[in-house]
């Protein structure tokens, strides 16, 4: 993918202070930079082509300060005010721009964790790795038998003093569902350091791990749609330097909540805007008389229910964003859990609704649109992929129990 010649002329973050100018600059930059046929080229593309495109797109976003615009200025970000973050996401949705999916953990989960608990050395080393070298991170939390019940994890990390006097943690175990892990450089890892702890949530530590370390084996996991977005990771006597421990030993459970808050809430800000834009496009198509099913009053009523739920989800997302700005690192926030539940169910129901409207033609196999954001024109693939949001970050069934017991105070 060739670099855009227009990048030097556009610096959207320089327009912070004037919302209308910022919006106009984002729109102009997207028009000058984003290839109009990017979706067409990625439809049925090889994974290698998709990865190359993702790296190119990340580089273009970084070039004008947009990839890490939400980061603090001390880390090379722009501390983008929430009003401008909403504008940015609205314009990305309007342009149907690709999301930098390979860098989701790098841009959101990693900084959310290190901002709250990382040492200055960890922040400098690993955040600069993302910002300056495009390093890719993935998440090593779930295990066989420890998915939504994450505290049941059994991967062990044992502290060891080597002959040269250096201290390492020797890790053994297995992880699953590490998204994009086959392309990642580093791992956000949870491992048990005190198996005798009185509660299973205790005795867990949080590590930053090099995925290219000796003893690491990665294997793809084939999904229902035929792709292998996830991997499983086997850890056999993998050594992690002690300086890669985040926070104190045995406090990993608390630290992981910063990471999970990003997964359950922050990355939905962009997705909610995209879904809102698509549903609004359906209304515009209906007004233009190009939707045959719109004449069916029952279907029209069903769609408007979905539209209302989408508006509620987007309002909840913006409330969550406001709370995060006002109380950063607060793990007492309940809103990300509500947001994850609401958004995932609306997304799934909307995908099912649009698949049904597509009729038999929608059931036919079509090449996947890599990076299609789970609401592309491939309705069958969208429907299958929509299940992932009801599972990732904690299954909806488990999170509903969390809401009932921990947030509403209902009996177990």
CATH class of the largest domain: Mainly Alpha
What fraction strand?
5-15%
Give the total of domains.
3
Structural Rg: 22 Å
Contiguous low-pLDDT stretches (5 residues minimum) are none
First-to-last CA distance:
54 Å
Kindly report the average pLDDT value.
89
Under CATH, the topology of the largest domain can be stated as Butyryl-CoA Dehydrogenase, subunit A, domain 3
Helix count from the secondary structure assignment: 12
> Helix coverage percent of residues?
40-55%
Name given to the CATH architecture of the largest domain = Up-down Bundle
| Widest beta sheet: strand line-up | 1-4-5-8
**Topology as a string of helices (H) and strands (E):** HHHHHHEEEEEEEEHHHHHH
Major sheet attributes: 4 strands, mixed
- The total strand number stands at 8
Shape: globular
Any idea what the CATH superfamily of the largest domain is called?
Butyryl-CoA Dehydrogenase, subunit A, domain 3
Structural class: alpha+beta
């Amino acid at each position: 993918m060739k670099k855009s010649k227009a990048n030097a002329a556009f610096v959207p973050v320089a327009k912070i202070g004037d919302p209308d100018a910022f919006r106009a600059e984002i729109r102009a930059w997207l028009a000058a930079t984003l290839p109009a046929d990017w979706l067409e080229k990625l439809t049925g593309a090889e994974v290698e082509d998709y990865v190359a495109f993702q790296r190119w797109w990340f580089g273009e976003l970084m070039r004008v300060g947009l990839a890490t615009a939400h980061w603090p200025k001390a880390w090379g970000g722009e501390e983008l005010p929430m009003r401008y973050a909403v504008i940015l996401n609205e314009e990305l949705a309007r342009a149907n721009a690709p999301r930098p999916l390979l860098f989701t953990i790098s841009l959101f989960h990693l900084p959310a964790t290190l901002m709250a608990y990382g040492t200055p050395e960890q922040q400098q080393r690993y955040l600069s790795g993302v910002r300056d070298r495009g390093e890719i991170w993935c998440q090593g939390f779930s295990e066989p038998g420890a998915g939504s019940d994450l505290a049941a994890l059994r991967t062990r990390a044992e502290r060891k003093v080597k002959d040269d006097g250096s201290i390492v943690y020797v890790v053994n175990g297995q992880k699953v569902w590490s998204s994009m892990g086959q392309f990642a450089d580093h791992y956000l890892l949870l491992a048990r350091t005190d198996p005798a702890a009185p509660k299973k949530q205790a005795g867990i530590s949080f590590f930053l791990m090099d995925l290219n370390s000796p003893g690491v084996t990665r294997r793809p996991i084939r999904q229902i749609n035929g792709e292998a977005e996830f991997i499983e990771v086997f850890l056999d006597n993998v050594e992690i330097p002690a300086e890669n421990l985040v926070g104190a030993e045995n406090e990993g459970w608390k630290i992981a909540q910063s990471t999970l808050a990003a997964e359950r809430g922050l990355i939905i800000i962009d997705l909610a805007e995209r879904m809102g834009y698509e549903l609004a496009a359906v209304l515009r198509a209906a007004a233009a008389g190009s939707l045959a099913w719109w004449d069916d009053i029952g279907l029209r009523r069903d769609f408007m229910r979905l539209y209302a739920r989408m508006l509620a989800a987007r309002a909840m997302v913006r409330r969550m964003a406001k709370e995060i700005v006002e109380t950063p690192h607060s793990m007492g926030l309940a809103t990300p859990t509500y947001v994850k539940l609401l958004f995932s169910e609306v997304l799934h129901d909307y995908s099912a609704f649009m698949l049904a409207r597509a009729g038999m033609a929608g059931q036919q196999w079509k090449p996947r649109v890599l990076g299609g954001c789970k609401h592309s024109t491939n309705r069958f693939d969208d429907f299958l992929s929509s299940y992932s949001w009801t599972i990732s970050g904690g299954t909806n069934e488990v999170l509903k129990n969390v809401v009932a017991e921990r947030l509403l105070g209902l009996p177990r």
